[in-house]
Structures are given as C-alpha cells and as structure tokens.
UniProtKB/TrEMBL annotation:
Keywords in alphabetical order: Coiled coil
Domain of life: Bacteria
Source taxonomy: Bacteria, Pseudomonadati, Pseudomonadota, Betaproteobacteria, Burkholderiales
Protein name: HlyD family secretion protein
Subcellular location: Cell envelope
Length: 444
C-alpha cells in the first residue's frame, strides 16, 4: 500500500465529518450517516436509531423516509432499543448477541455481521446509534475508523438536541455517580449548619457626658485660644467674639445713660421751687432707669465676649480655621469639653442590614489602623428610627459602654463594630442580602 492509499481513508473521514456538521436538519444528518458512510466503510445496509424526541428508527439506507409500520423498520427498532438499553460500546455483533425473539428474524433481514456505533458526546450517555451490516467481519482498522466517524456524527447530532433546563441538567449531573451525590448531600448539610448572624457597622469612639460649649450671643468669632484636643482646666479661655459692634452699642448706651442722669438731676433741682417740674421728675426717673438697664445689659454681654472652660478636660473640635471669622448665632455649638478617660462607642447600623439588637447585647470594635486590637462594649441605647448619616445612608444610632478590664480606646478613634444576633442556617446568611433586594424590587 502506497502513501496515497493510506491517507485516502483519513481524507474521506474528514469530509464526512464536515458534511455531518454542516447538516441543517436531523433528516439531512441521518441521510449522511446511513448513505454517505459507504464512502469510508463498505456495508450492505445501514440503520440510524435516535432517541431525540420520540425513540424511533430515524433513517434507513436506500430509503428517503422509513415507514414506522414496516416489519423491517419495527424489527430494526427493537434491536436499537436493546442496544441502547444495554449501553453497548462500539462493537461488532451478530444474531447470537440478541435475545431469542430477535434472533429468529436475523437471517431474513440482515447478513451475518453487524457493527454497532453509539453516537454521543464523550462523557455523556449516547442517545443515538448507527448499525452497519455486511457479509464479512469488521477488522480492527475499519473499527478504528468507524469509532472516529461515530464521534463526529455524535458531535453533529448534539446540535439538534433540545436544550435542557437547569433542573434537568442538575438531575443528569447527579445521576453521574455516587461521588456527585455525596458532594451535593454534603453541600446541603453545610447550608443547614447554624451560624451566628453578624453585621458590620461603622463606629466612632465619642466622649461620654461631654460639656457642650455654645456661642453666648450673636457675633463673629475673632480669636481661638486653644487648639484641637488641647487639655484645658476650669477657667481657661477658649475663644473670643469680635467686640467692635458690641463695644459701640455699649458706648452709645453709656452716653444715653449719662444724658438721662443729667436730665434727672436738672428735674430734681427744678422740682424744689416749681410744681410743674415735680411732675416731670417721675418721667426723668423712668428714663434714667431704662438707660441704666440697657447699659448694664451691654456690659454683661461684653463680659461674655470671652468664653472660658467651666471644667477640666480636652477641647474637642476639628480646626480653628473653620471658626475664625465665622458668624455664629446664640446657642450654636462650637466645641466640646470632654474627659478622655470617659468615652463610649457610637455605631451606625445601616437600615439595610438591620438585625434584632437591643440594650445589653455585646458588640466588638475593630479600630482602624490597629488590626490586632479589639474592644468589647455593651449596648446601652438603640435608636427607634433610622436617620441619615454624614455618609448619606440611613442608619440606626447605637450607644455602647466599653466593658471594664480593658484600656479605653483613644477619643475619636474610628473603626468597625461587629454586631451579633441569633443563630441562622448558613444558606440564610449567604442569601439574606440578595433576598432583601429581590423582595424590595419585586414588592412581595
């Protein structure tokens, strides 16, 4: 045999595989399988059995369309059902390999030797088969070519297979073996393992019972005498307001008082000899008292221009440049005087992650920049409604006291608080957020 004769079967194999993959319908593919396979393997008859849709003989060589009521087609269909049920591999077979009811009619329809080729993708059960029959046996060389061709036909046949649903695919995967079923059972058991329901919330160490320093009156802040986080004592000047306008009002009030006092003196001297002046002295006295009250009020306001600390602690505010030259209203918050040893934890539990927490529960603070540190705190207050935070999300404010026996964290320390609720299955914890989003989106 020369090289050309050796390569010719391979070229024919490639052409048949290309023709099979180019088939537009299942009928066209069946025609190629039962008729054009003759170009590669000599045989007398070919029958294609398929389980796609209704299990049947899909094609017979030499016939444009097989008649399902024909005795030959019915007998060949029984052989296809038997081979598919027994899951035959690619092999030659004869009448002796069939049940007795099928052996009796073998000589009537087929010659002595037949070849069964299951058609399916590797790793998947075949749902079709091709039978080739002839008078002589099938040697190993032809059997190897037939197997390769069967792989190509099976790949082409898979294109016409209806897409299975996810449930059907899962069922097929589970039927693949005991290891898969055990894996699924283990996954189901793992999903039911109870775990603590935990939520993370941003938190900050804040002052406990701080003294709030407010603006004593309307004005403009002129000077700050302390720096952020500076320790102060009772009586230490904190900041001062601009006295320009208030000093002018005080000067005007003093001049008005002096004028009213002079008028009152003149009225008192004239009243000694003039009866009419005795009547005007009462008006002068009232006007003098009015100017005196106004002068005293402006003097008191001048005395309040400089604000001093009323107790020991540290001055808690952001930056002096945020306040210098800024107009403030009476009662507006300026800074806090806090004891750095008296701190508490303020956490903001996002409304979307709300869990059942209450006073008395313990949470854990993980401070930023200190991955090896953690602080335990007991919740003492839970807000009854969610409020917008500075970051723009709705959250429930929580207050917690740090447990004794641990050094308190630094005032102003930021971190993340971990809150724990009851026990829940792992599958619920994993799907909790997606279920909440789906419920809000679907409205159920």
């Amino acid at each position: 045999m020369n090289a050309r004769d050796a390569v010719s079967p391979l070229l024919t194999l490639l052409q048949l595989a290309r023709r099979a993959r180019a088939a537009a319908t299942l009928e066209e593919l069946g025609f190629v399988a039962v008729n054009e396979t003759l170009q590669l393997l000599p045989y007398r008859q070919a029958v294609l059995w398929s389980e796609q849709g209704l299990a049947r003989v899909a094609a017979v060589s030499g016939l444009p369309q097989p008649d399902p009521t024909a005795p030959y087609v019915q007998w060949a269909g029984k052989i296809g059902r038997h081979a598919m049920r027994e899951r035959w591999p690619a092999q030659g077979f004869g009448a002796v390999d069939l049940p007795e009811p099928l052996q009796a009619e073998w000589s009537q329809w087929w010659p002595e030797h037949a070849l069964w080729l299951p058609l399916g993708r590797p790793g998947e059960p075949a749902d079709a088969g091709l039978v080739l029959v002839r008078e002589r046996a099938w040697p190993e060389a032809e059997l190897a070519l037939a197997k390769e061709l069967a792989d190509a036909y099976g790949h082409a046949l898979a294109a016409f297979k209806p897409r299975r649903s996810g449930l059907a695919q899962a069922g097929s995967w589970l039927r693949g073996g005991k290891a898969r079923r055990r894996l699924v059972i283990a996954a189901l058991v793992l999903c039911l393992v109870p775990m603590r329901l935990t939520v993370l919330a941003p938190a900050e160490v804040t002052a406990k019972d701080p003294f709030l320093v407010r603006a004593p009156l309307d004005g403009v802040i002129d000077r700050f005498d302390v720096q952020p986080n500076q320790p102060v004592h009772a009586g230490t000047p904190l900041f001062s307001l601009d006295i320009t306008s208030l000093q002018a009002r005080h000067d005007v009030a003093r001049k008005a008082y002096d004028t009213a006092l002079e008028e009152y003196r003149q009225s008192a001297q004239a009243a000694v000899t003039d009866d009419k002046s005795r009547i005007e002295i009462a008006l002068s006295r009232g006007k003098l008292q009015e100017r005196s009250v106004e002068l005293e009020y402006t003097a008191q306001q001048l005395a309040r221009i400089q604000v001093k600390a009323e107790r020991d602690g540290v001055a808690v505010f952001a930056d002096t440049s945020d306040w210098l030259g800024r107009a403030v209203a009476i009662g507006e918050r300026i800074l806090l005087i806090a004891d750095p040893r008296q701190v508490e934890l303020t956490a903001h539990l996002p409304a979307g992650d709300h869990i059942a927490v209450q006073a008395g529960d313990v949470l854990t603070l993980y401070p930023q920049g200190s991955p090896l540190s953690a602080y335990e705190a007991r919740i003492v207050q839970v807000a009854y409604r969610a409020e917008p935070t500075a970051e723009g999300f709705l959250a429930y404010r929580l207050k917690a006291d740090f447990l004794p026996g641990q050094a308190p964290p630094r005032l102003g320390q930021m971190g993340t608080a971990r809150l724990e609720a009851g026990w829940a299955p792992l599958i619920y914890i994993a799907l909790r957020r997606p279920l909440v989003v789906a419920r809000q989106w679907l409205g159920w």
